[in-house]
Amino acid sequence: MRQLRTDFTSPSTAFRGAPFWSWNDRLQIEELTRQVRDMRAHGMGGFFMHSREGLETPYMGDKWLECIRETVRVAGETGMHAWLYDEDRWPSGFAGGLVPARGGDAFRAKGLVMEQLAQIPSEGEPPLALFAARLEGETLLDLRRLSADGESLAPGETCLAFRRKVAAASERVNDDADSANPNPQSVAAFLDHNYETYRQNVGEEFGKAIPGIFTDEPNIQSHRTEFGGRALPWTDGLLDFFRERRGYDLLDVLPWLFFDGQGAARARHDYWYTVSQRFTEAFTRQIGAWCAEHGLDFTGHFLNEAEMGQGILRGGAIMPHYRYQQVPGIDMLTEQNHEFITIKQCSSVANQMGRSRVLSETYGCSGWEFTFEGQKWNGDWQYVLGVNLRCQHLALYSLRGCRKRDYPPAFNYNTTWWKYNSVVEDYFARIGRVLSEGRAVRDVLLLHPVATGWSMLGEGDESTTRVDAFGERLNDFCQALLATHYDFDFGDEQILALDGSVDGASLMVGRAAYPLVVIPPETRTLLASTLALLERFLDAGGTLVVFSPAPEWIEARPDPDGRLASLWARPGVTVLGGVGELNTALERLLPRRISLLTRHGQQAARLLYMQRDLSEGQAFFIVNNDRQTGCAV
Prior knowledge:
Blueprint: H1 2-9, E1 20-23, H2 29-41, E2 46-51, H3 62-78, E3 81-88, H4 98-103, E4 110-117, E5 129-136, E6 139-146, E7 158-166, H5 184-202, E8 212-216, E9 230-234, H6 238-246, H7 254-258, H8 264-293, E10 297-301, H9 308-315, H10 319-322, E11 329-332, H11 340-353, E12 359-362, H12 372-384, E13 389-392, E14 395-396, H13 421-434, E15 439-440, E16 444-447, H14 450-456, H15 461-483, E17 488-491, H16 493-499, E18 500-503, E19 506-509, E20 512-514, E21 516-519, E22 525-526, H17 528-539, E23 543-547, E24 553-554, E25 557-558, H18 563-568, E26 573-576, H19 582-589, E27 607-614, E28 617-624
Parallel strand pairs: 1-2, 1-14, 2-3, 3-8, 8-10, 11-12, 12-13, 16-17, 16-21, 21-23, 22-24, 23-26
Antiparallel strand pairs: 4-7, 4-9, 5-6, 5-7, 15-27, 18-19, 19-20, 24-25, 27-28
Helix pairs in contact: 1-13, 2-3, 5-8, 6-8, 8-14, 9-15, 12-13
């Protein structure tokens, strides 16, 4: 505790902000080193060396690497942290175009494209699969796979042809295509081009002046990738991987990914589940292992953390990636306090895996008029939910020309308030130091229902919007649960399958113990591994809360043995009819640690808190989430 008090008085570099430092012009070593010393003098703790629009020095060329080496040297001299950034702009994986150029189509992003045809195609490259289908709008009424030459369509049938298509070249990717991030060989080439090059040039500073490296929005199908038709993500090797993991031929169920009907939920669930595993293992697990081997902290964020539909479309699931990051991270755009799900997904895994730091790329798109009060209001909200390291977006090397329009605000010498920057940095460094000590106290595990999202998400904007809306209702439920002042972590089912266990009457996820599990409203399906874990949890005397109607599917399939119905009827299970019953149920089932009451004796819903167990006591951080009105308690 004495050391904590000392650090609070004079917080170290490690807890100060490390902004994205936009290298966006012709780089001069003298100017880079001047800016490093200036950031240090104004309270910053480090920076991420980030290629951005406007860069005139060839990316990863000799001059670029010289600038990296000299900047790292000066950072070491001044006690700053020089974080690496793994890409030319974003999203990560293509190494400025070098990865697809090296591997050709094998290393380029791909889509599964569906065509609706009046006749069975007889020319051109053979498709992956052909089907004869009877359709009513977007619903499949009948389906048969066409497997032999000479077959024909019956009256009323439509031919569905499915093809693998390679992404086209784009100016945004330096006149090549997006990379094939679910392909482990493509990711290995990415490591070789960028990570290994940095190791050869500044590897002696890994874990010293260079704490780690940032990956930015890696994905399996970028917003900008067009395939000229109705398409979903694809990768070479997916068919074999799917058969290995799911036990049947993916080609047999492709139509259900695009059309509604009896087989849609199962096919979609299994497809996205497999896509998630493939992407996580090929990209994040591989890079995380490389970083661990070489003494780097792997950090960064993934695309569309807040929108469940978009998040599934871009990568299958968000939370499994955090298991392989030494510093799990998020992106919190704009001046807002809405995305509870974004922060909680990340800080939950950090807590479970014993990661002491949670990074937020923050404040981007808040505008040039963004204030110190805005920094504190938004930052306090993020910190009380688990963030403890700010990566401000953006510190501009240069404002010349269009560079000043790169998603402001800016956090560098070229702002009018720069001389006061240390005031904000001192504040967040102190808060970050305390909120990195000990462990967060969270007694409730909230099961993440992304598997339900998998079962819902087909191709097309309408389906994505529907799953996004489901995710938004989950975000609302997170706020309702936090308003009871029972803090929680999310439990991702894939992580539960790897790191879940039962200890006494607690469900363990990694290092974290939870005496109570909540399954949120509208959850329709559970993984078989989750069901087995919950059965053991209840056998040991655990407590489970579920909302009616309770889940009825196991991996989007009916439950013929009635295991789920039996589970909900067991002692230790409370079935609630609505969110309005939640607070009363929690108070009955779990001793309350924290009570923050209004003068009327009700829980003050606008107040958020974090409690931390320290070696010699407790720490509490309490935030009023209402920007306009005080709260008397």
